[in-house]
Amino acid sequence: MGSDSELSFALDLTLDEARRRTAVLEAIGEDWDPVAVLAEEERAYDMLYSGLDPEQQRIYDELVQAGVLPDRTVGRVAD
């Protein structure tokens, strides 16, 4: 082989991806309810961002305006 040779190869990860997905679904279990999980997550965020003092609210609003956090204050009663 000369110095101008190239080594090329292809690797098909389809089977490994199928195994990974199967393992994830087995670990989650049959009783996993993604809609319920998302609803719980929304409730957790609502709790996290509720009852902020004025300084925390100011920082939250700045982070929302900067696009760092999503605006979760739709329907929030203004003080």
From TrEMBL:
One Pfam family hit: DUF6400
Domain of life, per lineage: Bacteria
Name of the protein this chain belongs to: Uncharacterized protein
Organism: Rhodococcus wratislaviensis
